[in-house]
TrEMBL record:
Sequence intervals crossing the membrane: 188-209
Organism phylogeny: Eukaryota, Metazoa, Chordata, Craniata, Vertebrata
UniProt xrefs under InterPro entries: Leu-rich_rpt, Leu-rich_rpt_typical-subtyp, LRR_dom_sf, LRR_TM_domain-containing, LRRNT
PROSITE patterns referenced in this protein's UniProt entry, alphabetically: LRR
Presence of the UniProt keyword Cell inner membrane in the record: no
Family: Belongs to the LRRC3 family.
Record-given protein name: Leucine-rich repeat-containing protein 3
Pfam families for the chain: LRR_8, LRRNT
Length: 234
């Protein structure tokens, strides 16, 4: 925070969230909201902000379109909060220009891969209680992670106890593929569903054939009976 205060030392007169400090230098505008006991992202952040620091607060969720109106954003620091949930469209509108996104030291267990894979920003995801799963694996493989923090993405929970407490990168390097496990589970579920539908069709066909056979037998017995019996039946 001290670095930002030195770098952006000239206050600027446009609207600023009451709990934050807004500064500017060489045309780059920063909003500094560190350690302000915030429980959600302020709604009145100026549209032309370039650097946004929201670290060391009590924010629990990043909702959809949280930064959509901030098209000039290049850096967002959300580290050291209490974030547990990130919506799929949380960073919609800022994906193209964002260079750095810090989500380290929160309470994030899982995250929709769509929220991060659309970003070109360097991501910091360390020191969260991650549940190691396919979505997190895909983020690790496809997103731009800060190389200095990758080793600190650790499995807090996992499908198998032997992975708990280990860095996700180490688990993947050992040959584990969480996505293939999920695919096998989906294949089994699909097979069971198809088998159930097939069994229902077979039962329906058997019942239909039996019903038609009984009707045919009754009709045959009727035709074989004497005319007097037929007249009596009618």
């Amino acid at each position: 925070q001290a670095f930002f205060c030195l770098l952006f030392c000239i206050p600027w007169g446009s609207s600023c969230p009451p709990s934050c400090q807004c500064t500017e230098r060489a045309g780059a505008k920063a909003v500094l909201c560190s350690s302000r006991h915030l429980e959600e992202i302020p709604e009145d952040i100026p549209r032309d902000v370039v650097f946004l620091k929201l670290d060391a607060n009590s924010i629990t969720r990043i909702p959809s379109n949280a930064f959509r109106h901030l098209s000039h954003l290049e850096e967002i620091d959300l580290s050291r909060n209490a974030i547990e949930k990130i919506d799929r469209a949380a960073f919609k509108g800022v994906a193209a220009g964002l260079r750095t996104l810090d989500l380290s030291s929160n309470r994030i267990r899982s995250i929709p891969k769509e929220a991060l894979l659309a970003l070109n920003a360097k991501l910091r995801l360390a020191n969260n209680p991650w549940h190691c799963e396919c979505a997190l694996q895909e983020v690790l493989w496809e997103a731009r992670l800060d190389p200095d923090s990758v080793q600190d993405i650790t499995c807090h929970t996992a499908p198998r106890e032997e992975y708990v407490g280990k860095p996700l990168l180490q688990v993947l390097d050992a040959g584990v593929n969480f996505c293939s496990v999920r695919q096998r589970t989906m294949d089994v579920a699909m097979f069971i569903t198809m088998f159930g539908w097939f069994a229902m069709v077979i039962v329906y066909v058997i019942c239909y054939v039996r019903h038609n056979r009984e009707d045919a037998c009754k009709h045959g017995d009727y035709l074989k009976s004497p005319p007097s019996a037929q007249a009596h039946a009618e």
